[in-house]
Design a protein that fits this description.
This protein is α/β, with parallel strands linked by helices. It has a single domain, classed as Ribokinase (UDP-N-acetylmuramoyl-L-alanine:D-glutamate ligase). Strand 9 and strand 10 form a beta hairpin. The chain is globular, with a radius of gyration of 17 Å. The two termini are 34 Å apart. It binds adenosine-5'-diphosphate (ADP) and (4-amino-2-methylpyrimidin-5-yl)methyl dihydrogen phosphate. (4-amino-2-methylpyrimidin-5-yl)methyl dihydrogen phosphate (MP5) binds next to strand 3 and helix 7. Belongs to the ThiD family. It catalyses: 4-amino-5-hydroxymethyl-2-methylpyrimidine + ATP = 4-amino-2-methyl-5-(phosphooxymethyl)pyrimidine + ADP + H(+); 4-amino-2-methyl-5-(phosphooxymethyl)pyrimidine + ATP = 4-amino-2-methyl-5-(diphosphooxymethyl)pyrimidine + ADP. Its EC number is 2.7.1.49, 2.7.4.7. This is Hydroxymethylpyrimidine/phosphomethylpyrimidine kinase.
């Protein structure tokens, strides 16, 4: 029998189903990757914002990781919301030396503007977790936070992508341009060259969970053995279709649509 691609997400939840663990598992499933999840924080949130957060005890995060890691091998994993330094330390301890593809979505703030991680956790993420990654996928505010420099132009984005690898030690970096005007352009720096991924901007407010979906799709494709530029290209197509067909659900920023590729195929 052909081996089954398996991927793990370590992240927070979204009961409204658009972001976090829920978005990651929907993406893994849609991309024919067996999905597993370790929950860091239970977040009461929806399309309008974050109403409350409950952080799981660190031992419970460690035990979930042990449950998965002692039982089912996986080819790639991603991290999303890791709210504080204690959680980051515990996760770092478990993944150090694993030699498994690690995609980090450096989640700091929800699309609604609500903060999702503690201030001092940003430092730990930058100094300790970044060097462990195969790829990090910051949006513009996150890339600014990591580099400490303003990003206003496409050249600034490329410079940040390069810096995040050479100065901060990430394996590769994908700086996403969703927050700029004009074309939706992302730059991947893989340690030797810049790859550009560009699509027309879609006129919608429904972008809740697009960052989670994108990094989960990259993780799924990497778990299937695709090279980094190929995985990012396919994932960009996936997230773009998911935004194009996004759902006008809820009272705020609606969620990405994980059936979008089927809808485009049957049209
Ligand atoms: N309105 C849009 N139309 C098309 N693509 C978009 C739009 N907004 C974001 N994207 C793309 O969606 C992906 C997620 O990007 P971004 O919104 O920057 O991340 P995040 O959700 O982490 O803030 C990127 O590929 C970005 O270029
Ligand atoms: C638990 C959790 N993780 C991440 C996000 C960010 O979502 P987005 O993909 O819209 O930036 C979120 N809203 N909730």
């Amino acid at each position: 029998m052909k081996s089954i691609p398996c991927a793990l997400t370590i992240a927070g939840t979204d009961p409204s189903g658009g972001a976090g663990i829920q978005a990651d598992l929907k993406t893994f499933q849609e991309l024919k990757t067996y999905g597993m999840s370790v929950i860091t924080s239970v977040v009461a949130q929806n399309t309008t914002g974050v109403q409350n957060v409950h952080h799981l005890p660190v031992e419970m995060i460690e035990q979930q990781l042990d449950s998965v890691m002692t039982d089912i091998p996986f080819q790639a994993f991603k991290t999303g919301m890791i709210a504080n330094v204690d959680m980051m330390q515990a996760i770092a301890q478990k993944i150090i030396g694993l030699n498994i593809t690690y995609v980090m979505d450096p989640v700091m703030v929800a699309t609604s503007g609500d903060p999702l991680i503690a201030r001092d956790a940003r430092d730990y993420l930058r100094k300790k977790l970044l060097p462990m990654t195969s790829l990090v996928t910051p949006n513009i505010p996150e890339a600014e936070d990591i580099t400490g420099e303003k990003i206003e132009t496409l050249d600034d984005m490329k410079k940040a992508a390069n810096q995040i690898v050479h100065e901060f030690g990430a394996g590769a970096s994908l700086v996403k341009g969703g927050h700029l005007q004009g074309e939706a352009i992302d730059f991947l720096y893989d340690g030797s060259s810049i790859h550009t991924f560009s699509t027309k901007r879609i006129d919608t407010k429904n972008t809740h969970g697009t960052g989670c979906t994108y990094s989960a799709a990259i993780t799924a494709y990497l778990s299937q053995g695709d090279s980094l530029p190929v995985a990012v290209k396919k994932a960009k197509d996936y997230v773009t279709a998911a935004i194009r067909h996004s759902f006008s659900l809820g009272h705020g920023s609606g969620p990405a649509n994980h059936w979008a590729q089927h809808m485009e195929r049957v049209r």
